[in-house]
Design a protein that fits this description.
Number of domains of chain A: 3
Helix content of chain A: 10-25%
Oligomer: homotrimer
Number of helices of chain A: 5
Largest interface: A-C, 77 and 71 residues
CATH superfamily of the largest domain in chain A: Hexapeptide repeat proteins
Strand order of the largest sheet of chain A: 8-11-14-17-20-25-28-31-34-37-39
CATH architecture of the largest domain in chain A: 3 Solenoid
Largest sheet of chain A: 11 strands, parallel
Structural class of chain A: alpha/beta
CATH class of the largest domain in chain A: Mainly Beta
């Protein structure tokens, strides 16, 4: 797509310094930009690339704009403004309405006339595919699952029976929604499977990364509220609830029946044990284990930065013998006390 | 499904207090139960919901039954009894025998007449699909793989060449069994691929969660014994052996050639390094790293609970300078000793 | 396949002690070997099995060869030599050229005449499938993606739009290359999606394990250089660059815009936070968190080995109250100082 700087300024309410008729056709980083591209500056660490940029225009804040050598589009939140412009210049692919000849759609499925069902996809009886929704190649939509308007399953996505997705969601390839939660009752000779009879409800504007899994509830539903973003390879256990606009980075695991509040930010590879409550506006830094409920707002951690292995091994050994050190200090305190008595 | 309390009491050997003719049609939690549903009480933390439940009946132990405001089904192990009843009220879906027209089944594959092969599935030459087994949509069963009776691949599951599954297993969507183990011989100019010529053998009554992977053996087989339960996104390396009735929670990784005993419980996101032995009846709590062999029975940990970030950073800094603290204590001890000598 | 010891010695430049006409048809471990198989000894811990082996021949180094009770093939690097011989005895499966009748190949895709496209696969417009490449069953190759010569997608692999793979790569089942990176700009009412307009470039001789995900770049490309090996369930964020011949074990996560050098070895479940640089020849041991740039060469760690839970809990509690211990030591030092003054 192409747009003039003037059009972009008007459409997104930005202050333009430069030629309103200049055209841009793509986005670029400050350092790799060529004429005809639009770049942005949101992170101060990239400010040093501003002076040399060959972009036609840069989206930035008022303070940085004073140093901009090319046209500038000034925004209070340059990254969000850039994101909106990038959506104009690089629109999501459009999928033609209709069901591909190689797809298998059950006659009792309800597929909107303007929805797209890609090659090799499977849609079972009772499933509903909403207006302009897209069921990508190789995806499987089981019995009675519901897909809201404008939602897209990219490829090889699986929705189990009865799962409900809101509108404008994106589920990347390999996502599995609604598999059985991990429920087994220990008994004398092993485990008895506990049927997982709940489902999964996912709100509007949710994006779910590749190969992420969200289990169905044991009895009640697992719930992902509006605007939640899950990165790749995230695992959400049964009966978890994730509040609106929370963001979970890659490889996070949330165990069954835990609740995460609204607007939380959970760093990569964090593990949340089961049956906990994390409040609103909680941030957990990467590689932490959450094993108690956490009040919000707040920032929590337990990850340890890697250091040279030889040094690290000594630190672990010292941690193990802390008890000995504590006893030595107690001895010193006692003897000193004894010394006092001697005095 | 529907059942009377009397039928359930007789079938599962439970003591009924209440109307044997009362019917239930579904399970529910104590707090969300409505008339016509059956609930259970196994975890004392939910006891407070018992008095107000609207369930028609509750499965619980004899002690709790004294407080039950509705019909009770008394069991020594209420959770296992509930699980068995839930299987009656919510039976697993039945798949009609036959091969879907869109599936690709090689003429030299051996598919039982009463097995189900779903849409878009692929079954290669020499593969065996046992009685009443179910190969779900989009699944791929490669050459010479074997699927036991009543085993189900839900959807988009991949079994590599020669993999053997027992009876009554469930493999959730996105599971990959038998991909090459991670075997590369370092050489001057990079790595030489080591062909992975072993296979994978999986016992009876094994359940494997969504997007879990189990690699084939390098030379001998990778083995998962009867009754093992693997949660979602678990990774099992080549030549691992997991003993009967062990349970591995989500996101666990087990590196090559390690052995896990029988009846072990491995918590979420635990990592097991290669070439170790974990004994029978070992529990490892979530987010721990197992880097030495562990004797069973026993409970092992190395996960650290997250705390407020500011406090945590100080704790890590103190751990790093423990050496200094040890030296200060040694100095105190020495000086005191010196003091003694001075005295 | 079968080969004589003489052929193998000549082909791989090995010194043979034994009958050059003796034949081997398969590889085996020292302890499970039977006549007609070839084994190897590379790890000293298996030396004890050498005396009793029934292999027809063993690949080993000159020192160990003195104890070999059967024919020996002496190599400076026995594991690499064994790997090469195993490739001869157990060749990778050959896939017949041609497009399976159930595959969906867009007329504007460019599929080499000698490439293989398996059942239920999907190849979109503009995609290029190189000579002898193999697109396995259920795989999806989106618009304009490119697959180099002799590269194989095993099954249910997804390549997003414009992704480029080099030659002789293997992508195991469930791999997803080129899904959107995790880019969302926070704004007043939630997040604005940042279109991910970069792609993924993967070099030659790269192997990628089952269910691993590599995200497309936000603006520039994500890059995996020649000879890199990624194990199962690895997650690579947008704009990461991984240098040639680096090896990442299972469940590793690398966050966006980080760079890993050449010949690095990253242990299982390691997490690398974003925007870091790891130098060449860096080893990170399993279960570590990399949160600062690491110089190479070097070995780094932060994983803690699991111990008995009761003992571990005390160690964590002591770590938490280290501040108190530090204060007690400071008091001792001060009081002693005071004592001095008293003296």
């Amino acid at each position: 797509m192409r747009a003039t700087l003037g059009e972009l300024a008007v459409r997104f309410g930005l202050e333009l310094a430069g030629d309103p008729g200049a055209e841009v056709t793509a986005v670029a980083t400050l350092s790799s930009a060529r004429p005809g591209t639009l770049s942005f500056l949101a992170n101060p660490r990239y400010r040093r690339f501003l002076a040399g940029t060959q972009a036609t225009a840069v989206v930035l804040d008022a303070e940085a704009a004073t140093d901009c050598p090319v046209a500038s589009l000034v925004a209070a939140n340059p990254y969000a403004a850039f994101a909106r412009i990038a959506q104009v210049l690089h629109p999501a692919p459009v999928h033609e309405p209709g069901v591909h000849a190689s797809a298998t759609v059950h006659p009792e499925a309800d597929v909107s006339a303007d929805a797209h069902v890609g090659p090799q996809a499977v849609i079972e009886a009772g499933a509903v595919v909403g207006p302009r929704a897209c069921v990508g190649p190789g995806s499987v939509v089981m019995r009675d699952a519901q897909i809201g308007a404008d939602t897209r399953l990219v490829a090889n996505v699986v929705l189990y029976r009865g799962v409900r997705l809101g509108e404008r969601c994106v589920l990347h390839s390999g996502v599995v929604i609604g598999a059985d939660g991990f429920g087994f009752a220990p008994d004398r000779d092993g485990f008895v499977k506990v049927p997982q009879v709940g489902s999964v409800r996912i709100g509007h504007d949710v994006e779910i990364g590749a190969n992420t899994t969200v289990d169905r509830g044991a009895i009640d539903d697992t719930v992902i509220e509006d605007g939640v973003k899950l990165d790749n390879q995230v695992q959400i256990g049964h009966n978890v609830r994730i509040g609106a606009h929370s963001v979970l980075a890659g490889c996070v695991g949330v165990s069954g029946s835990s609740t995460i509040g609204r607007r939380c930010m959970i760093g990569g590879a964090v593990g949340v044990v089961g049956h906990l409550e994390i409040g609103d506006d909680v941030m957990v830094t990467g590689y932490s284990m959450v094993s108690r409920s956490l009040k919000g707002p707040g920032v929590y951690s337990s990850g340890i930065p890697a250091i040279e292995t030889a040094e690290w091994r000594k630190a672990v050994a010292r941690l193990r013998r802390l008890e000995v050190l504590e006893r030595r200090v107690a001895t010193l305190e006692g003897k000193r006390g004894g010394g006092k008595r001697e005095a």
